[in-house]
Amino acid sequence: MLTSQDPRLAGRVAFTYPNFVSYTLARFFVVLSLEMQSVAVGWQVYEITKLPLDLGYVGLAQFLPGFALFLFAGHAADLFDRRKLLMWCYGGFALCSALLLAISWRAPQSVHSIYVVLKYCSESSDVSTGPRAARCCRS
Q1: CA angle, corner 115, sides to 66 and 49, nearest 5?
Q2: Structure confidence by residue, pLDDT tens digits, 87-107
Q3: CB 72 within 8 A of CB 131
Q4: How many helices and strands, by DSSP H and E, does the chain display?
Q5: How far apart are CA 81 and CA 2, in angstroms?
Q6: Distance of alpha carbon 82 from alpha carbon 23, whole angstroms
Q7: Phi, psi dihedrals of residue 119, rounded to the nearest 5°
Q8: For the chain, how big is the Rg over CA atoms in Å?
Q9: Average pLDDT for 26-53
Q10: DSSP letter at 106?
């Protein structure tokens, strides 16, 4: 019989807490949806421009805001309630996804508006990095 002192259960103890399970599921679905969105945006940008360089600009729009915000994200995680900050960031993800949907329904001829929304989505992701790490690593 397995007991709570059994080393085989050491990695699963956290999943006995309902709040941790909810957080882990939410994080999983956020990452899954952002990855699917990233593939769809890359596909759409390539369909509009037919230029591989523009796919590089998609990656750049998602990557560059991290340099500007990594210090702010950690500072914000210390100053504000981490749970509320994460909810605001997840709301930002939802808003960016809705904006990308509206842009794709409009069938744009230019990709500039997509790059702007991707920048904001990346900023939400970068700001959420600090609170995510701090919430999981609390003792």
Answers
A1: 135
A2: 898 899 999 999 999 999 998
A3: no
A4: 5, 0
A5: 38
A6: 12
A7: -60, -45
A8: 18
A9: 92
A10: T
Q: What whole-number distance in Å separates Cα of residue 114 and Cα of residue 67?
A: 20
Show Cβ contacts of residue 86 under 8 Å, excluding neighbours closer than 6 positions.
Answer: 128, 131, 132, 135
Q: Is the CB of residue 55 less than 8 Å from the CB of residue 112?
A: no
> What's the distance, Cα to Cα, between the start and end of the chain in Å?
29
Residue 41 tokens read as 């945006």
Three-state SS annotation for 30-46: HHHHHHHHHHHHHHHHH
Q: What angle do CA 81, 86, 92 make, to 5 degrees?
A: 130
Among 31-40, 69-78, 112-121, which stretch is predicted with the lowest mean pLDDT? Answer: 69-78
Q: Which residue has the tokens 């900050």?
A: 85
- Contact between residue 118 and residue 41 where contact means Cβ atoms under 8 Å apart: yes
- And the tokens for 88? 């605001």
DSSP symbols for 43-74: HHHHHHH--HHHHHHHHHHHHTHHHHHHHHHH
Pairwise CA distance, residues 60 & 38, whole Å: 12
Tell me the C-alpha distance between 96 and 114, whole Å.
10
Q: How far is CA 62 from the centre of its chain?
A: 10
